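If it is no trouble, might I ask you for a protein's amino acid sequence along with its backbone structure tokens?
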Amino acid sequence: MVKAEERSSMADGWGEVFHRNRLVPPSGQTVRLAAENHLTASHGFQLSLSRITAAHLPQDLSAEEDVTYQLRMTLFDRKLQHFFGKTWKSSPQKMKNSKIPFNEVLYLHTSLLLPSTLVVVELVSLSPKPDGSHLALGRGFTILELFTNRPEGQSTDGDRRLNLHHGSPRGLLHPSLKDQVDYGNLLKVIDGAHLDCQVKTHPSLKSAMHLLPENALVCGEDTIPGLISSPTGDVLLRPQLLKTTPFTLDRLTISLQPSLEKFESLLLQLINADCQNTKQPEPEDAQRTVVIQERRLHVGVHNGLCFLDKPQVVVLEPVASGVRGRADSTSKKSILVKDSSATSPRPQMLGLRSSLEIKLANNQALAIVFQLEYVFSAPIGRETMLSATSTSRAAFLQCLRWGIWCPFQELADRKGKEVQLVLQGGAKPNPFGVMVYSTGTSVQTQSPAAGSASSTAQDLEAKDEIRFWLLPSVEKMPSSPRASLRTKQEDVSRQRASPSQGQKHVPPTSPPDSPQGPGLSLSQLAATSHYPTISHSSSALPGQQSFPSLLHPSPLASAHQLSHVACSAVSHITHLEMDFQQEGDDMTSKEKEGDQLQELPFTPVHAPVITLVMNVPSSCSVSSRSSLAHLFSAGYPEIVDCSGQVAEVLDPTEPLPFDPQREEADLLQGNLLVFQFLAFTRIQAAGVASDWPRNIYVTFQFYRFPPVTSQQLRLLTSDKVQHNASEALPCVLATINRDGSVNSGSPGLQVQFRVDDCFLKTGEKRWFLRYLALHNMHIDIWDSDSLLLIGSTAIELKYMLRQGRSAVQALHELKVLTTDYVGEDTLLTDKDPGRRSASSPMTVCNVVKGRLHIRTGNTGCPVDPSRNRAADGISFHSHIITPREVTCGFKGGSLSPRNILQLNACFYLAAKDTVQEHRLDGDWMLLYRNRIRAHDITHEVQHLNTESGRRKLDCMAAVHRLEAKKNAKEADVMGLKPTARLIREHQPSEDYSKAEGIANMLSQAITTHHLLYASLGSAEYMEFVLKNPFNMPQTVTIHTDDSELSVITDTEEWRYFKALTKTSTPLEENMFHVEKGAPGPRVYLRPKESVHIPLKYQSFWCNNTIAVQGPSFLPTGKGSQMAKRNLSNIINAKIIKVTFRAEDGKPMAICQVNVEPTPHVVDQTFRLYHPELCFLKKAIRLPPWQDPTAEDPDSWTLNSVRCSDPNIICQTRMLVPGEPQDVYLKVPGSPSPHIKMFFVMVFTDKWMAAPSQIWQVYVHFLERVDINCVTGQRTCQSLVLRGRQAVRKIKCFSSHSKEIEVDPAGVFVLSPAAVQELKLRVQPWQAGSRFLYVNAVDMDQQRLVAAWLLCLNVHRPILSKAFEVSVPVANGRGSSRKMTYTNPYTSTRKFLLRSDHPDLLQFREDKFQIGGGESHTIGLRFAPSQSPGSAEILVYVNNLEEKTEETFCVKVNYS
């Protein structure tokens, strides 16, 4: 039991907050006036106090250095001259240069949106006293008007400059200021003193209004219980609520001292005596005395400032001392049950028959507040004009006790214990704001008649207590609905059959939970009850009667008690009797539909979670010197510099300093980066052959180059080399030709990438060097025969930085890792072995599958000045698009396609001289669609005036006209496909109208072209200079024909991108006018005015198709080992037009943005395997990234994610600082063997300018097959392979060839539409849950046809015998033993011997044959060990079908 004495200081923190935030309520007249004006909803506001400029303050004390200044703010009702709320005080500040900076932000929510509501701001100087306190002296005040003269109007948003007035705010209470609308004429202004502030609405405060009291000024830096602390320090700027958890109050009882009967008897005597003293004498009659009608308990959650929700009100019932709460073993509900041993005991305490549910947030400042309240019924006097025989009575309320308890201050103490809390009384401040009955007063003022009922001295020392259990709601399991309903119906029928026996009614065994009842209004409390009040005690207490009652003020009531009645009217009251009566009657539609389910605090767990920070394989060499000598004796090509000297060798185990300035100042601006794949070292693993893999291929992507898929590489071994059997020898890699023969040239595979100024954009070299210094390149290694993934590795690229050297090289030996998921093993005797619990743990482990030997190098190359840069004439850092007037115009003549083509060429040449490069438009687009490139005709356009140029253009136009006529004869335009119709529309025709030519010419005259290089996820910023050419103002509408190019309308976002791109152009606040349903934002232009329109292009979507899985061949010839620079096929090139339309709808200017795609950098690659046609749900954990621009190093970064596939759900959740953040993926399934590829972009900045990380995710969908088996025993499973349209030569491969056999094992022909049955023979040797793979490969095309995911649930066998053997360590010979096996059958049988550790145990013979009932000696040979320890080896005796007959366990102790 948790006693209240042990928690004497529990509520100290809450009490301090409560006493510090007590408020003066507003006038009731003002509240009613606001309600009459329909101002009942509370609105949030933000008040920003900047500074006070005070050049001439009265009684200037500025010479004193210790004087500080403080602002004090209070709400004031001008109409009633009433201060209300609470005075807020700022932090003391010193005056500097006649200015006092405060920089405080306050928040307020109120429903009194009346012109009479003011904020009074007083400036106070604080002078230190010798005793350490401060002398506060008023230096002036000002008045801030929040609302306009219209009652329905909101606050006047905007900046304010308020003049300071002489005097004190208490002068506003002077009678001469009453009913004054404007104080300006009556108050004297201090010259040169004013306050700069700002007032604006704050809608974000609506979510946190229940945590703040109304009409209270709160600073954003204050601690608000119930809100998550903000990294900015202002918790109310964007409030974030703590998650609430439902709890249940069970077995609640209240014991009053000295006893319930004596306590209530004394209370009634005092009230009746007070009635006799205040009223005229009446006949002593039962109808003329005050009686107790109902006992209530208010329960609410309070944060020291206000109640988080309206307190719930439940009805308590007197119970005997033998009645205690117990928990039903079936339903887990706590109910009050009578002790059968007691015979009609007297009620000694109050109890709650059911449980009560509340919601709490995990905060130490939150408290549960209890208030015990009695409802008394009193007779109505003669002044009511009713006769003395009338039974009309009035009801009044009185608070008797209250108490608080903070459940989260000592959370560990309350678990599994009963809470015992002392209740308080007397004139003390309490959260309910009511007067409370005092125990001491009642004892001292009791009448002589009450003395006989007084308790002893020992009883008076006892305290009033409340006891209860606080349990999470999830621990309360509801009972059977059918049984509960039956019990309720029986209770209802019993009450209806004998209403006179209601007072002897016994509570049901399993009552329902007390629902949160409706709030009762004053009229409802005053209405006569249709049902009598039922007493649940066996004997009524003194004064306990059942009278229909009317609400009437108590004889003891005063102003505070009347307000208490008003507060109770809006509380939630639960009446169990009413619920029982309604249970058998008609149910409301809401009850029929059922209650809304409440969400529990739950975080989805997509186990196992993928950790983003991959354990980068170490580059240190683990091979011996003999292995390295064998490796380099193969004759790999050397990496040399331009002069033929061998490149300098770097040690990848040593740190490498990086100086970016040294790299940029290098004279050799070209870089030839080389990757040499030298060898692969096999590592023996269980279940696979010793020579696996035989052939491999690798896939990777370097920087922005297209992904590389190598050809097949053969692993060559040499039998001439003698090496230690314990050490694996590196296998030299050799390329395989198309005919299947091994290349006899230089061994290994060399891939080169040339990066120079022709490849890099202007300013991109810095990013490329950063990529080399910080990134690791992901490499996947595949088995080229089975197309199974062997593993993955990552290589550090920083050792390719030359740092001023002519050439560098480094040798890396990387571990090839794969992720394996293994579940716990189970015994064969477990129940339901075919099913595995969804919550069974899975062990995630990284398995080393081999070591890859790679040599990297970088050779510096001089740049050929004769080669033009691809970006010559284009300034990529110029983000300003300025329309340029074209000097050449239309010279007259025919508007034929040829002349229009010439005109467009002139525009193209004119624009090429500017900082923008144009794409082709109009007829140029026609040439582009016909595979004629712009640079191919640009040279010809320069000679358009020559005879040969004209002849070429006339020939091109004639060819197009002939094609148009031919296509018109073959098919109608409407019958063509959309693509063909689009080409047809762009083809010139003889019917080319003059209007179209003029429109095209005018459109080209106002069109400005801009070339844009964009990559996935990165935002490209640009500003278009828009000029109003008219002599009258224009409202221009901006329209884009592609949603990926948008106008930046947010000022903060505009400012962010200007700072990011270092664009020094003017920025204007509130520049655009945005309306719903409008084609785009609008901007107002004055005559001849020019403005900068901010534009942003950003694309998250891309082409997610991937190449067919399997090896490929690099191009042959002189550059066979050079990776070509190709355009990315991830993002498609496009042309986007931004049209600026005037008020008449005609275009004023056109900006044509030609988007050229560039490949993006992939930071991480994930390959996931999942069953087909079902959703993949996976979580990827983000590292704790920090924003380098943040001032606080402990600040946490808000991460946002985007996915390149709109059909994939990708999201992340906001968590508290310090908690790991996960990215959740939900990928729809596809049929096997489809591979889905997509990109995930992670942003750490608010406006998502550029992704911090780009992940490439591959999801392999396979056909799932579940197999249950036992270790050491063969299990057969059939698969079906269906043929398609062509004849294929198929061969099946398994990931574990020693554990899975596929029949047919060789190559077989699969005919079209044929069905081939594949038989799997699975014989695992490790227990637990495992995943294996089977692939069907087309041997001619080296392509994957089908794939299966085998989900094995392997159980341990039942052991027949157990043995223990001791083997000496380091003797080099091992040990031999023998054991006897008897044939249990009567006939001769053949048996096979198997072991799960063939490396530790070998048999003298693997098979034997014995007759029926005979015995056979099995010879065992244990391998030697070099270290002490122990191992358990299972010996299987199988029949010819590999079914286990017996299993022996041999424990080997190496000592």
About this structure: The first helix runs from residue 12 to 20.
